[in-house]
Amino acid sequence: MNIQMVDLNGQYKKIKEEIDSAIQGVLNDTDFIKGQQVIQFEKSLSEFLSVKHVISCANGTDALQIALMALPLNKGDEIIIPAFTYIATAEAIALLGLTPILVDVEDSYFGIDCSKIESAITSKTKAIIPVHLFGQSANMEEIMSIAKKYHLFVIEDNAQAIGSEFTFSNGFKNKLGTIGDIGCTSFFPSKNLGCYGDGGAIMTNNDMLAEKIKMIANHGQKIKYHHDIIGCNSRLDTLQASILNIKLKYLDTYNLKRLSSAQIYNERLKNCKEIIIPQTNPCSTHVYHQYTLIVKNGKRDLLKDYLSSCGIPSMIYYPLPLHKQKAYSNLVEIRSTLDNSSYLSNSVLSLPMHTELTIDQINYITYSILNYLTV
């Protein structure tokens, strides 16, 4: 079987006519920067998320950096983040001279452990960046409550869970990325909503923040050649926006296909005592950007090697928590034990997950896992 971690080619072939037509339209117009397709995509994504403002940008890391630049922060201010996440969460903070404060994550849903946040807050703490890891929400109700209590900003890192929804205790529902002061996402090709290059977006319901974010992403200008604040050059090009306009129409379908594949994985693997299948936060829907197992008893790397010998790819997201990354050893501060983050880095293994995954492929993958772990 030709099994891939992500099958972008198969997905493209199903919408090839629409994609090719959209790209050709941009080539015909030669409107490559800030074209109408960018404006249309921002409007369509705003409607999909039920958020007032969507400002597109060059990539997800830029989205985080621009979000931080839009807030009243000074060098040395502290930003609380989970220790188990992709490096971009800490990278954007460090680049601005801010201090990443690491807090452990839950061992079940992999979101930041809210019980550890308050003890990490000091007079220098200005914001929390929860990461919606692998496709589901961190505990946003508790995070927003803590943020309100201590007058902190909340920036949602939603690069991996676009389309997922959080349900509050009063029954009110919000799409992820629209709950905090600012939300950030990525359109890297392998994301649930991915373009064919780099891309990102920033979301907010705050009019003043939206205006400032637009300026920052455009060299700090509102009027051309009049630069009122320090900014950067970060924009989604028109070709990528034209692709995203097509793929956004299919996002709910794509996410449901991922959910269906995850449910088959779960059914096949639920009785294996050597692994823990992904747990779903009851307050959140799960869009399965990754299908991530916890492999027990130190067998993760052995299982990965065995799967590779069977022609099955797998990935480790992430092999090192932030506090063990060399570049950040002197930049981060640790305010809680990080036992879960260290454990997960040594135990997690992500299996193939994409919209083109077939039942036969899942059966072969799960058969191989069970064959190895139950010998």
Any overview of this molecule?
The chain has helices at 8-14, 16-29, 36-49, 60-69, 88-95, 140-150, 207-217, 238-248, 251-269, 300-309, 339-347, 359-373, and strands at residues 53-57, 78-82, 99-103, 125-128, 153-157, 165-167, 173-175, 182-186, 200-204, 221-223, 226-227, 275-276, 291-295, 333-334, 348-351. It starts with 7 loop residues before the first helix and ends with a helix. It has two domains: 8-104 and 112-248, Type I PLP-dependent aspartate aminotransferase-like (Major domain) (Aspartate Aminotransferase, domain 2), CATH 3.40.640; 251-373, Alpha-Beta Complex (Aspartate Aminotransferase, domain 1). The mean pLDDT is 97. The strands form four sheets. An eight-stranded mixed β-sheet has the order 1-9-8-5-4-2-3-14, with helices on both faces. The chain has a three-stranded antiparallel β-sheet with strand order 12-13-15. It has a two-stranded antiparallel ribbon with strand order 6-7. Strand 4, helix 6 and strand 5 form a beta-alpha-beta unit. With 375 residues, the chain is of the alpha/beta class. 37% of the residues lie in helices and 15% in strands. It contains twelve helices and 15 strands.
